[in-house]
Amino acid sequence: MTGTRPRESAVDRIRERVEEKAARRAAAREAATRPPAADPDRPPAGLPTPEQLPGVTAHSPTHIPWAGWKQIVKRSWAEHNADNMPIIAGGVAFFGFLAIFPALIASISIYGLVASPETVTEQVESFSSQLPDEAATLIGEQLTSITENSGSALTFGLITSILAALWSASGGVGNLVTAVNLAYDEVETRGFVKRKLLSLGLTLGAVVFVLVALTLVAVVPAVLEDLPLGVVGTVLAQVARWGLLFVVFAGSLAVLYRLAPDRDAPQMRWVSLGSLVVTLVWAAVSVGFSIYVNNFGSYDKTYGAIAGVIVLMLWLYLTCYLVLLGAEINAETEHQTAVDTTDGDPAPMGARGAVVADTLPEKPEPAKGDSSPTAKNAS
Predict the structure, then answer these.
(1) Which of 48, 88, 180, 291 is the most exposed place for a label (fewest CB within 10 A)?
(2) CA–CA distance, 134 with 138 (Å, rounded to integer)
(3) What pLDDT sits at residue 201?
(4) Do the beta carbons of residue 351 and residue 358 sit within 8 Å?
């Protein structure tokens, strides 16, 4: 039709986003070569007013007013969609599914050094019972296969199998690292060796998290039953147990958000609040999804023998979706302030080694249909 504007293809939009982010990274590097300002804490020229960008001088996420959080949430949602994170979360979930069972092999092999295979199976099945029935059944069947072929002695073969399992599982973690890096608007410049070592380290941390969670969910209840705590003491102990599990999960997310992006690490307070919020939302979504699958879903009738696979992948997708949304929220929270949010001595904007710390949003709130909803403005 004459006079109509040709529609921009998805490939063109993705190419524009990649080129835009590469240009931002180059601009940040160029700015880093300039002599630093005499006073890094002095606000940069042209700083938006607190009315335009509430929280622009905040030294902590808790200092950002509600009006600033409204802008952060809107920009995070727009950036989440502009970065195609719903699609990327599907890819991360797929590779995460491939990494689950190698991670289970590594976890059970390590735990099996201090417990019998039967005990390990019973406790892990108790842990997985928190998932929907189909997913729990799938994991239980794999656990039986794993424990039947595992031993309790630290042999060369066991060490080799643990290392091989960690290497395989690190592939899924590596994809998550890439996705979080995209959420922070960073361009990947780390070499293969550095990225792989980071993925292996995070994978080992994930195994430790699984072991800690397994202890809290499956082992601690058995111990509490043998203690004379009384009704009130037992209730308080159960609340503390689940609270500690949430704290461990939120702490694990904070470590991921801090280490995964290719940038100067943010201070812990700039990743902790988002991690806590994501943890609470994830717990509520997981419970709701489990109730829906167990009581209203008909995946077994639709998918038959692979119903467990489908349910587990859907749960992984929801988990990855929320984790990446949390990364976007953390990034835009840093983006809301002109104060240095990175570790180390304060540095002026443009010399902090992080896109969201070196810039302010050009538009505090994204416009509808904007192809670049959170364009950065280096002040």
Answers:
(1) 291
(2) 6
(3) 92
(4) yes
Q: CA torsion 167→172→177→181, rounded to 10°?
A: 140
**All residues at 6 or more sequence positions from 76 whose CB lies less than 8 Å from its CB, including other chains:** 325, 328, 329, 331, 332
Can you list the alpha helix ranges (DSSP code H) found in the chain?
Answer: 10-32, 66-82, 85-111, 117-128, 133-148, 156-183, 192-214, 220-225, 230-259, 269-295, 299-303, 307-335, 355-358
What does the pLDDT look like over 171-216, one tens digit per residue?
889 999 999 999 998 888 888 999 999 999 998 888 888 778 777 7
Closest CA to 260 of 341, 360, 186, 346: 186
**Token output for 216:** 């809290």
Rounded CA gap, 274 and 329, in Å? Answer: 7
Closest CA to 169 of 131, 206, 127: 206
Tokens of residue 170, six digits: 């690190």
Q: CA-to-CA distance for 199 and 282, rounded, in angstroms? A: 23
Q: Say which DSSP state 9 is in.
A: P
With contact defined as beta carbons under 8 Å apart, do 155 and 325 qualify?
Answer: no
Global confidence as pTM: 0.78
- Among candidates 219, 212, 342, which has minimal Cα distance to 270? 342
Q: d(Cα 237, Cα 220) in Å, to the nearest integer?
A: 10
DSSP symbol at 219: I
Counting as low any pLDDT under 70, the low residues of the chain are 1-46, 107-158, 218-219, 222, 297, 368-379
In sequence order, the β-bridge partners of residue 342 are 266
Q: What is the pLDDT of residues 139-155, one digit of tens each?
A: 666 666 665 555 555 56
Measured at the alpha carbon of residue 137, what is the angle toward residues 135 and 138, in degrees to the nearest 5?
65
